[in-house]
Design a protein that fits this description.
The chain is mostly beta strands and 619 residues long. The chain has 7 helices and 39 strands. A hairpin with a 5-residue loop joins strand 5 and strand 6. The longest helix has 18 residues. The radius of gyration is 27 Å and the shape is globular. It comes from Panthera leo (Lion). Keywords: Copper, Disulfide bond, Glycoprotein, Metal-binding, Monooxygenase, Oxidoreductase, Signal.
């Protein structure tokens, strides 16, 4: 291969990179950002290319020492990956892809899969910018997926690479956000309306669900709500776990005042249709896609909502008053579609049980859509799902929603295999997913209760459990929820308990010795039992049907990307596949090597590294 041919090839490859994906160079703007520590010392920016499966990070830390960024897991920092770098007093930089061999000790990976784009130090900050594959072929690198990612950040006061627990932080982040708020329109005629409690005395109980009923904005013609954000009193932020807004049917007779949502007065649990308007205290505002909105102002639209605020007062602090709520943004500039929310999952009541001491326990809730049209009163068009929100309590580890058509699994609609109770937020799907009349929808929730010595039952309290997924879709219909639960009598019989009704079945779970064998037997019985499916409309009309839990075909992991910065060790190649570099071009490697210095000068070291990976040569 001649140098001229090599340069022509490199130029074409460079142009292809510019036009085929989001290649983030050393000065490209990164759209997403977050502080990673309570004192706002560590600031992270990031962006990604879904097609190329490359993510770029920029870590800025208030230090003159080393900085590090990586990914860890829920249970231990051992095995976490950490990309570290810094600037020495003489101005030289160091940069390395490493992993933790124990809680405090770093070791360099045999495969260097992070590509440095910049490393600087000034009087205040050390800033490190690098890119890495979503999934490398190095077993020491944690994958970047559409799950919740536990981002690990650390730094030192000097250039000695030693982890200090006071300067090491973990923050759960949904890194692969599909839609950024900057990509969405803000109408010029935007109007703001607040839904909030007024001077509510937070009880000293661990858990309180406070509900009140409030009117939506009064408008003379149709408007669309397109955005919401939380209104939190600063000193009460840690007590407010979440805020939800439910739409009320216009035929509902609503109580006044504020009361326990799920207490003695059942009227305060009326209005069960989620609106897509809600807030988990660790999430920010959410804006709907530009073509959908929550309709208000027509005879078919709700006029009142139920505002639900979940307080967690675990320290039983007395005398705290709160006026939290939700701020709505709405407009007369109408969107194309009215949005709706469909609540799926395991019906929340004590038939849902999770044994203590379980390493893993799966629960299922089935939805059958065959009755939707009959209950809706008019034909139900195919719905287009664009977003979702996942919800369990503290024992939840993973959730997924699976779609079936004519008895065959069609797709996994959404999932999070690394679910974190402390990060619950509305997420956008990468593309719209269609649900047709007659489809079945299954929610699977994965729990772990190794830290519990008694049964966990379904219920609203944080120490109870839930298994819910909210699908955000258009066009809106009148169905508010579709949830299932297993025949508890069958489950009790499979566990050797003699019962004659559901109440006895629930009580019998307390008699079981929860050995690992019985935990697995209970999980199998719950999955094989007939499910009762409860379908509810916005006007509280309820109908039941029955069904069986179908099998779930697990999605395989995608191929890993070959290392571009070092030799991949044989033990690092994973069974899920290895995406090799393109086939080597025919020609003399010695000619290629002779051209490398000039190629690096003309096109830069990054382009040269790319070319070397393509030609499969070394320097």
């Amino acid at each position: 291969m001649t140098c001229a041919l090599l340069f022509r090839l490199l130029l074409l490859m460079t142009l292809a990179a510019l036009f085929q994906g989001k290649r983030f160079g050393p000065t490209s703007r990164l759209r997403y950002s977050r502080f990673l520590d309570p004192s706002n010392v560590i600031f992270l920016r990031w962006d990604f290319d879904l097609e190329a499966e490359i993510i770029t990070f920029e870590l800025q830390v208030r230090t003159a020492g080393w900085v590090g960024l990586g990914v860890t897991n829920r249970y231990t920092r051992v095995g976490s990956d950490l990309v570290v770098g810094g600037v020495l007093p003489d101005g030289n930089v160091y940069f390395s892809d490493q992993h933790l061999v124990d809680e405090d000790t770093l070791e360099e990976d045999g495969s260097q899969d992070a590509e440095l784009q910049g490393l600087t130090e000034d009087a205040v900050y050390t800033t490190m910018r690098f890119s890495r594959p979503f999934r490398s072929c190095d077993a020491h690198d944690q994958d970047i997926t559409s799950d919740t990612i536990r981002v690990l950040a650390a730094y030192g006061l000097d250039d000695t690479l030693k982890l200090d627990r006071d300067r090491t932080f973990v923050k759960s982040i949904f890194l692969l956000q599909i839609v950024h708020p900057d990509d969405l329109d803000i109408p010029e005629d935007t109007i703001i309306h607040d839904l909030e409690l007024t001077d509510f005395l937070i009880p000293e109980d661990d858990t309180t669900y406070a509900c009140t009923f409030l009117p939506l904005p009064i408008v003379s013609k149709k408007h669309h709500i397109f955005k919401f954000e939380p209104k939190l009193l600063k000193h009460n932020e840690t007590m407010v776990h979440h805020i939800l807004v439910y739409a009320c049917g216009n035929a509902s007779v609503l109580p006044t005042g504020i009361s326990d949502c799920y207490g003695a007065d059942p009227a305060f649990s009326l209005c069960s249709q989620a609106t897509g308007i809600g807030h988990k205290t660790w999430a920010g505002s959410y804006q709907f896609p530009d073509d959908v909105g929550v309709s208000i102002g027509t005879p078919l639209d709700p006029q009142w909502i139920r505002l639900e605020i979940h307080y967690s007062n675990f320290h039983n602090v007395p005398g705290v008053y709160d006026s939290s709520g939700i701020r709505l943004y709405y407009t007369a500039k109408l969107r194309k579609y009215d949005m709706g929310v469909l609540q799926l999952g395991f019906f929340t009541f004590p038939i849902h049980f999770i044994p203590p001491g379980a390493e893993s326990f799966l629960s299922y809730g089935l939805c059958k859509t065959e009755k939707f049209e009959e209950m809706n009163g008019v034909p139900v068009p195919d719905i287009q799902v664009y977003g979702y929100l996942l919800h369990t309590h503290l024992a939840g580890r993973a959730l997924q929603a699976v779609q079936y058509r004519n008895g065959t699994q069609l797709r996994i609609i959404c999932k999070d295999d690394l679910y974190d109770f402390n990060l619950q937020e509305t997420r956008d799907l990468p593309y719209r997913m269609e649900i047709k009349q007659g489809d079945e929808l299954l929610v699977e929730c994965h729990y772990q209760t190794l830290d519990r010595d008694s049964l966990t039952f379904g219920g609203p309290s944080t120490i109870n459990e839930m298994c819910l997924i909210f699908l955000f879709y258009y066009p809106r219909n009148n169905i508010s929820s579709c949830m299932g639960y297993p025949d508890i009598i069958h489950v009790a019989h499979e566990l050797g308990e003699e019962v004659s009704d559901s109440m006895e079945g629930m009580m019998a779970m307390n008699n079981v010795e929860w050995t690992p064998e019985n935990i697995k037997k209970a999980e199998k019985a719950c999955k094989e039992a007939q499910q009762t499916v409860i379908i509810k409309t916005i006007d509280e009309v309820v109908e039941n049907t029955t069904g069986w839990i179908p099998e779930i075909i697990r999605a395989p992991r995608g191929p890993c990307l070959e290392s571009s910065g070092g030799k991949v060790e044989p033990q690092d190649k994973t069974p899920a596949g290895f995406r090799a570099a393109p086939i080597a071009l025919l020609g003399s490697s010695t000619t290629t090597l002779r051209c490398l210095p000039l190629a690096a000068l003309l096109f830069g070291q990054g382009a040269l590294s790319w070319l070397l990976a393509t030609l499969q040569v070394g320097v």
